[in-house]
Design goal:
about 325 residues, D-Maltodextrin-Binding Protein, domain 2, 2 domains, six-stranded mixed beta sheet, five-stranded mixed beta sheet, about 35% helix, EC 4.1.1.55, 4,5-dihydroxyphthalate decarboxylase activity, 4,5-dihydroxyphthalate decarboxylase, lyase
Amino acid sequence: MANISLSLAVGEYDHVRDLASGDVRASGLEIHAVHGPIEDILVRGHRYKEWDVAETGLGAYVAAIDRGDDSIIAIPVFTSRIFRHSAIYVRADSGISSPAQLVGRKVGVPEWGMAAAVYARGALVHQYGMDLRTLHWVQGGLHDPGREDRSPPDPELGLDYRQETASSLNDLLAAGELDALISARVPRVMQGGSGRVRHLFGDPRTEELNYWSRTGVFPIMHLIGIRRDVYERNRWVAMQLLKGFEEAKRRSLERAADLTASYFPVPLMAYAVEQARSVAGQDYWPYGVEANRPTLEAFLQYAFEQGVTRRRIEVEELFARECLTYTKT
């Protein structure tokens, strides 16, 4: 039987490189990969279904499930994971130096349901005891006005939430019309060393490491989604893709730890690997459901509490059933 041809759109990550290039083969599949700006892939893949398989934002995916949209089915491959305590920015002259001082302040967010914002707000609530109803929330485009919010909060939460269409959040922050901002992307006003904006936490790295060590949560931003019609025609492709991504990731982690040559242009890379292993073990970037259950459960709880979903989605609803019991061999 001839291999099935699949188009794949994914960020140009080292841990997917060998599968995208064909150096790793997924049995029975012929993969044709394309790369591009990650925001472009996320929108085109999820909204327009332009590829058979595509990187998908966890927040948008969970919100779609809540709406009854099952046009994409995910596999437990997590392409982007980033801690988000460092995604909370404040004006340097705001007088804000702790989460408690955000009470009563205006806080911008590009999209309510984006995973980065969900995790950051979840930390504010569960780690620092904040009530999101005590903040004034402003949604809008980070650098360009008028960004649509695909998953605004449930009105029943009683949040003070408004959409800003005339100005960008970056400009509002620079002008003093916002006190703080939650954003996956660093705002321009923070760049260039102007000193006008800083992180909420003076030492976000320590905050994030402590959070990881204490909770076991390593925030997932993006995962791999298969278009439903592709999956239903050949359901076995889900497991074959998972195995292919796993092997590509294994090779990447080996490169990261290799002391023979510097495969990544990052000084002291080996020490960063050692630290990650000390917290999460040898496979500190795991795929599969069970190895990621604490992170997935936390996200789904946060999403429900924050009105991204109207009900508490279960972890098992997210993934192709063939992959639910996958364990690395």
